[in-house]
Amino acid sequence: MTHDTATAPDVLELIEMRLATLSTAERAIAEVILADPVGASGKTIGQLAQLAGSSEATVTRFCRSIGLPGYAHLRLRLAVSGDRRRNGEEVDGGIAMLGDLDPADPLSEIVRKVAHADTRAVDVTLAQVDEAELATVVDLLAEARRVLTYGVAASATAAFDAAAKLNLSDCAATAAHDVHSALMLATMYGPDDVLIAFSHSGRARDVVDLLQTAKERGVATVVVTSDAASPAARVAGHVLLTAARELRFRSGGVASRMAQLAIVDVLFVLLAHRRFDASVDAADAMHEAVAPYVIGSEKGGK
Q1: Which residues are paired to 239 by β-bridges?
Q2: How many of the other CB atoms lie within 10 Å of CB of 147?
Q3: Which residues constitute the domain of residue 217?
Q4: Which of 79, 159, 161, 290 has the most CB atoms at less than 10 Å from its CB?
Q5: Are residues 70 and 207 in the same domain?
Q6: Which pTM value belongs to this model?
Q7: What percent of the chain is predicted at pLDDT more than 70?
Q8: Residue 235: which CATH number?
């Protein structure tokens, strides 16, 4: 990551956001940390592993799952989080302090929790995005002959939005939301092309299979996911991490999609900025084409 530790998202919130995507062993480590963050920050990797009934290797995997390079970074972020609280600084506890939906919650509280989950998903995603990886993906898109975007269920929204925005940037993009169509398209792609797959969990088998097929054909592969240690992340050549925790009853809900769409929007703006004149010309041509179908436009009337 390229972000300063002092301005990075609160690590406890990151852990809470990733909780649902962690393995059983990694979740045990998370629970030890959340129960006593200050105490955990003073433990060696071996001591933390022992407290969680786990191994040092699992602690290292846990760090990567929450988007940190290693245990030293986790201890530092935990220490910073503890200092902020001891010094009375305002810390947005976000999802960590928000809690899940409760049967006794009044309407106003439910609305607040849903709104907070959605807005924090975007805020934390963009605050912790790996800028070097982001720049690399933009480079790939700028040079790509064709781009295939893929997602199923809730993630299909991001795939279609990505293709639409890439086309606005004069980048030939096609969206697919069923694995058969995507695999057939992937067999026609090669080293000059890019695949961007979206999967909140990173564990959708069709996403992993598509990434593997594209990779074998030399296609540059990118996955947008919330789990850095997921099967999809392990297969993809490039990983852009989102941060979202869905509230109860909202698996595949708005928070994960908002985080994915935030990544799409950043890619679009960076690419448009890179190819400013071509992007403006492409956008103007597209707006001109649909203007007759917009009531009230100068060229409307059809």
Answers
A1: 223
A2: 24
A3: 128-289
A4: 159
A5: no
A6: 0.73
A7: 85
A8: 3.40.50.10490
